[in-house]
Amino acid sequence: AVIDVAGLKYSDQTAIAATQANDIKKDGLMSIATPRGGTYQVILSDGSKVWLNAASSIQFPASFAGQEQRRITLVGEAYFEIAKHTSQKFVVYTRNQEVAVLGTHFNINSYLDEGNEKTTLLEGSVRVSSVRADVKDVRLVPGQQATVSAASKIDIDEVDVNEVVAWKEGKFVFVEENVPSIMNKIARWYDVEIAYEGDVRRKALAGSVSRFKNVSEVLEMLSATNAVQFRIEGRKVIVMPFKDK
Fold first, then answer.
1. Residue 28 has pLDDT above 80, yes or no
2. In the prediction, which pLDDT does 12 show?
């Protein structure tokens, strides 16, 4: 694989050394992981490009030559631009699904602390399969998102793809998103601990802000919704119901 070491950065845009980013195993597989607050771009041996979001990892062979399929394993979130090879499909394996393509652009969110896994198609076509043999495969068209539940059920929705891949462009974009999902993203990016006081988990918030703002500015934007407020104690962020002063 050709790895763009310069593409690996912490949230403050400082570079991460290559030795922190990848590990070549004895079986020829490469494992690449981003820390909290880091993003990474890697170019695979077939020319496919992968952008890793914070606290994510992929495992893949150093070369796809001689293999029946181009296979990688993902934990976390990644955006893919897959080089077309008609004789060798590209397959991404996660905890509850596999996504098979020949050449396309798509995003997969498969963080272990999220209840569902989501595959969003921007260009081309993909087939999403559950790990359960009794669940029927689905094919997506651009603009669709497949959600695979913990029970491996698959649902399809029309979504705003720009919102889904906003992280790749350095933005947080929330559109009526529930508070735990938002706070998970903040925790992974700013490497903070999240705690809750009061009943806020079912609230939904909306807003947009650069991921390169400091965490207090992001929390200030969310507080402006008058739905929640925050208290910061060291590296812990406490989420509370909004109260008028």
1. no
2. 52
Residue 128, pLDDT score: 95
Comparing CA positions, the residue from 193, 173, 195, 171 lying closest to residue 182 is 173
Q: What pairing do the DSSP bridges indicate for beta strands 193-196 and 29-33?
A: unpaired
Could you tell me the fold of the domain covering 170-241? Phage tail protein beta-alpha-beta fold (3.55.50)
d(CA 151, CA 48): 31
The angle that helices 215-223 and 179-190 make with each other, rounded to 10 degrees, is 170
Q: Do residues 172 and 215 lie in contact, with contact meaning Cβ atoms separated by under 8 Å? A: no
Has domain 2-161 been given CATH number 3.40.50.10260?
no
Does residue 102 carry a pLDDT above 90?
Answer: no
| Boundaries of every domain in the chain | 2-161, 170-241
pLDDT value of position 121: 97
Query: What pLDDT digit, counting tens, does each position of 175-211 carry?
Result: 999 999 999 999 999 999 999 999 999 999 999 999 9
Give the residue with greater pLDDT, 88 vs 239. Answer: 239
